[in-house]
Amino acid sequence: MRDPQDNHLERIKEWMLNDEMRMDALRIAAKLELNDWCLAAGFVKTMIWDKLHGYNQATMLDDIDLIYFDEDNCSEKIDQEKENHLKQVSDYPWSVKNQARMHLRNRDKPYLSSSDAMTYWVELQAAIGAKLSVNGDIIILAPFGLNIFFDNSITLNKKRAKPKAFQSRIKSKHWLEKWPNLTVIPK
To answer: In this predicted model, what pLDDT tens digit does every residue of 27-82 receive, in sequence order?
Structure first.
């Protein structure tokens, strides 16, 4: 019997392959050859929610979160240089953040990797990313697994456990208006 996670992974990859903008963004990001990188959060989550809601038109992204992990080059200036470069080569709304320093802003213990950093994000469904292998294959990073992305929920991350920030994000990003089949799981 096949693991449902395998089916979910295949669906996500198929959707990604058929999304011209997302594939273009992945190719552009891959050219930077960053350590432990991915295009995370809304880049994948929004696509999944759109597909589960039967939307033919992709929801516009406020930004494309390019995260990476490089302990040797933690300067915010380096992130800004990479972001400026990406904005020069495309019209996408890039946001670049080295996760090796983001624990300081969030007052967490040091993160071990990009995937580990995602496990501290406010909602579980933000913890997903996509990248390209050196062969051009799509790799999906999902530290909480893929099943949570297919149950139409938004779930508070117990590790972060900031219900006010969680509710504020849901409201300010208009998730329930954009995807009305979503249910909120606060705990």
So the answer is: 999 999 999 999 999 999 999 999 999 999 999 999 999 999 999 999 999 999 99
Q: Phi-psi category of 9—alpha, beta or left, where left has phi over 0 and alpha has psi -120 to 50? A: alpha
Evaluated on CA atoms 150, 93, 99, 157, the torsion sign reads: negative
pLDDT digits (tens, 9 = 90+) for 133-164: 999 999 999 999 999 999 999 999 998 878 88
Q: What sign for the dihedral angle of Cα 12, 15, 17, 19?
A: negative
Q: Could you give the CA distance from residue 139 to residue 30 in angstroms, rounded to a whole number?
A: 12
- Nearest CA to 55 out of 67, 66, 47, 45 is that of 47
Q: Which amino acid is at 25?
A: A
d(CA 34, CA 12): 23
CA distance 57 to 96: 26
Query: CA 166: distance to chain centroid?
Result: 16
Domain residue ranges of the chain, discontinuous segments joined by +: 4-185
